[in-house]
Amino acid sequence: MSVHKELALDEVRKYHRDTAADGGFIPGTTEIWPSGAVLDEEDRVALVEAALDLRIAAGRSSRMFESRFARRMKRRKAHLTNSGSSANLLATTALTSHLLEDRRLRPGDEVITVAAGFPTTVNPILQNGLVPVFVDVELGTYNTTAARVAAAIGPKTRAIIIAHALGNPFEVAEIAQLAEDHDLFLVEDNCDAVGATYNGQLTGTFGDFTTVSFYPAHHLTMGEGGIVMTSNLALARIVESLRDWGRDCWCEPGESNKCLKRFDYQMGTLPAGYDHKYIFSHVGYNLKATDLQAALGLTQLAKLDDFIDARKRNWRRLREGLDGVPHLLLPEPTPNSDPSWFGFVITVRPDAPFTRAALVDFLEDRKIGTRRLFAGNLTRHPAYIGTEHRVVGDLTNSDIVTEQTFWVGVYPGLTDEMLDYVIASVREFVEANS
Ligand SMILES: Cc1ncc(COP(=O)(O)O)c(C=O)c1O
């Protein structure tokens, strides 16, 4: 390492220590965020080092992250993207590729998904001219069930795309079995559940594709970022093409002629020998991330196990501290699962003597941050009214989620003192209003 770089990084370390000092927790004054990035000295150094090296596009850190994360998540192939939403877009769009021949999804085909959740789990279905079929969720786990999915399967059903809700696995083994029995693709949106297991097996390893987000609220962060993973090499190749402008060539930037046939292809109606680097086999995007993001991802990845443990510990503290509080429905892990929690979900029972809004106002006044279970019932949002979709069964619980549910944080930046203040505040409000 050059002496100037070493000196610069030493200064970064000193700067980090200067800025890292915090004034301690003051109840009612210090913000208790529902989520956030936990960034240390090594993260700051990694980012600055990538900048000093001017690694401004995707390069060696991106490739290293892809291979390490794939290994950690037990998938053969990973493709880094600029967001979890882009990862979902790529996974869904890949299912429409002409390379899948008879198995490809075509406009009008149906995809089973969940009504209550994050919009960009569902949006790629609509963006590809496919038809979402919405099913309801359970209260307590906030996931749908295999029985609801089975009831939604019809003659046009071709795929299932569902997120593990706020870190809590859905019944993924049973739903993967349904997918296999009915020849459906399964995409697991694992953006909120990295490290969770179902029947002892990591979520994200049951379906054809899995996606992860690296936005700061998530289990590890790159600022913005996401990843698509699969163990199916043909699907991986399609994702790479779609992510990288739709090109047919698989050489990394800076590489050429890895296939030893760069000037020997004849595709479409192009002249024979047209440069393979510029032959496009998909109507693609550019959804790549940069090495600045990947460099941060690598230092974050080294701490992933600790982050997951802290999330579980924080969730347990809240769960035990709030146990028995009347009028609240507390969260439950899906049977046979070990969740990797994203948040702590509370539903105010519809017959409670106080409203969700009053409880949330009380907490927010005390600087205890709250969030909604994302969109709640998506079908009630302006964007989806008038779009082609089907609903199977009713969406009663999704409506209850829309009206009565919120969550507070469990992310690793929260201390026991903060969590105890959250518990005491909820208890104080409920006692005063019952
Ligand atoms: C379940 C789920 N899917 C997808 C996303 C989108 O990820 P991103 O914000 O990186 O686009 C989120 C974001 O929080 C999410 O919670």
From TrEMBL:
Transmembrane segments: none annotated. PANTHER family: DTDP-4-AMINO-4,6-DIDEOXYGALACTOSE TRANSAMINASE, TRANSAMINASE. Coiled coil: none annotated. InterPro entries: DegT/StrS_aminotransferase (IPR000653), PyrdxlP-dep_Trfase (IPR015424), PyrdxlP-dep_Trfase_major (IPR015421), PyrdxlP-dep_Trfase_small (IPR015422). Keywords: Aminotransferase, Pyridoxal phosphate, Transferase. This is Lipopolysaccharide biosynthesis protein RfbH. It comes from the Bacteria. Its cofactor is pyridoxal 5'-phosphate. Belongs to the DegT/DnrJ/EryC1 family. L-glutamine:2-deoxy-scyllo-inosose/scyllo-inosose aminotransferase subfamily.
